[in-house]
Write a structure and sequence with these properties.
This protein has 187 residues and is α/β, with parallel strands linked by helices. The protein is built from six helices and eight strands; from the N terminus they run ββαβαβαβαββααβ. A five-stranded mixed beta sheet has the order 4-3-5-2-6, with helices on both faces. It has a three-stranded antiparallel beta sheet with strand order 7-1-8, with helices on one face. Strand 3, helix 2 and strand 4 form a beta-alpha-beta unit. The radius of gyration is 18 Å and the shape is elongated. The two termini are 15 Å apart.
């Protein structure tokens, strides 16, 4: 990756949230950790698949919190969310856009965001560190890259134009509606 591509821009981030089914009776990071410790190797969590940032967030959480949880990978967000909504799986690490409607309806409880900072899209949801668990930050982000060796003036022009596009209110609104924080900046 470092040899074959040159960065153009970090376009957006997609906050990953730890959310739980209400029956778990965990509303905070510490309550969630307690629930995991009280049911070692019984508390399951889901993600959109093995090796995804969401899975990595779950495994890092387990390591830092020193808890045992069972990872149940799914092939995408929809089936994972359905099983958490149904209570078959008690928790998940999922992108904000996929779970926001269910958090607003109360069918899922937002425990924390895995980023280093709260997301402006849901400022009331604390970070894992604010909940007492540091060192478990995971950020899912999206960027634009070009083939290594692309002339610098082309890279800078692309960067400039993408930054301009990301300031358009319709683009920002559409990204926000999908659960993305607009980032932008330099290559």
């Amino acid at each position: 990756v470092f040899k074959d591509f040159d960065p153009v821009i970090k376009a957006a981030s997609n906050p990953i949230l730890l959310v739980a089914h209400p029956s778990l009776n965990a509303r905070t990071v510490q309550e969630f950790i307690t629930a995991a410790r009280n049911t070692p190797q019984e508390l399951s969590y889901t993600s959109i698949g093995t090796g995804s940032p969401h899975h990595i967030a779950g495994e890092l959480f387990k390591r830092q919190a020193k808890v045992g949880m069972i990872h149940i990978p799914y092939k995408g967000a929809a089936p994972a969310i359905q099983d958490v909504l149904g209570g078959q799986v008690k928790a998940m690490f999922m992108g904000l856009g996929a779970v926001a409607p269910h958090m607003k309806s109360g069918r899922l409880i937002a425990i924390a965001v895995t980023d280093k900072q709260r997301t402006p899209l849901m400022p009331s949801v604390p970070t894992l560190a604010e909940g007492g668990l540091s060192g478990a930050e995971v950020e899912a982000w999206f960027g634009v890259f070009v083939t290594a060796g692309t002339p610098q003036n082309v890279v800078l022009r692309l960067n400039r134009e993408i930054n301009v596009a990301m300031k358009v209110s319709e683009v920002r609104e559409r990204l926000s509606a999908g659960g993305f924080d607009v980032v932008g900046g330099t290559p």
